[in-house]
Amino acid sequence: MPKISQFFGILIYMYFRDHAPPHFHAKYGDFEGMIGLDPIRLIEGDLPPRVLGLAIEWATMYSKELNNAWKAASKGESIPKVPPLA
Questions:
Q1: Could you give the CA distance from residue 86 to residue 78 in angstroms, rounded to a whole number?
Q2: Which among 12, 48, 50, 86 has the fewest CB atoms less than 10 Å away?
Q3: Is the pLDDT of residue 1 over 90?
Q4: Which residues, including other chains, have CB under 8 Å from residue 60's CB and lie 6 or more apart?
Q5: How far, in Å, CA of 53 to CA of 55, rounded?
Q6: Could you report the per-residue pLDDT of 11-62, keeping only the tens digit for each?
Q7: Whose CA is closest to 43, among 32, 30, 29, 54?
Q8: Spatial separation of the C-alpha atoms in residues 23 and 38, rounded to whole Å
């Protein structure tokens, strides 16, 4: 599972050939959540509210890049990195 971004202690991952709907995984300490790309929302898991808010803000800023990364991952291609939240 390649790490595609990291910011404020939040690690963002995307799996190769993962199941639909398009999403990414956010990890923060012992917490993990699966966040959908369309719409951008928590699909499952448990993240602290502040961490979830930052992950959603980041996903909103980089939705195009995340959708391109999902397309690459679904084909088993190299997954591009996405800039962190600054």
A1: 24
A2: 86
A3: no
A4: 40
A5: 5
A6: 999 999 888 999 999 999 999 999 999 999 999 999 999 999 999 999 999 9
A7: 32
A8: 8
